[in-house]
Amino acid sequence: MHSQRLSRSSSQSSQTSAVILRRTQIINNKPICDNKTGFIRHPSGFPLEIKRRRFWERHAIAEGENPKIGIIFESTDYIKPGEIIDITILLQNKLESFTGKVILVKNIGDEYEIGLWLLCQEDASRARIVEQLCHIELYMREKKYREGPYNLNPDRVADEWITKYASEVPSL
Prior knowledge:
This protein has one domain. By secondary structure, the protein is an alpha+beta fold. The termini are far apart.
């Protein structure tokens, strides 16, 4: 009887811990690549800024060679499909900006999943690297939380993430 209580309470505490980690956005429980769209999923632990292009600003954008890659992210704002937007991600004290066309909008409760099709090859190459760095940083936060910050070697953690998950990132 005592062992049943102990195992039940330890499973409850691990479930509670997982809920806390998801709420604080330390754990990203969604896959890196969205299976339905093939887009790279931006982790919700890294906020991004969205700026809609005005009508007259859209014509200044030259759509180059189609890179066939996109980013999917969550937003509290509805953005119409077809809108041209700029997203900015703060990563390691540097702003990274990308321009794309919204091609997917999915309502998920209080938020929307927005699928952004990148418009140029340079943005696609940079976006792959930036998104991988975001996922590595989130993985490092999770490791710090679970294992403590004392034994953490950033290079080892990055290599571990690359070994486990880098193959999930779509290639150009």
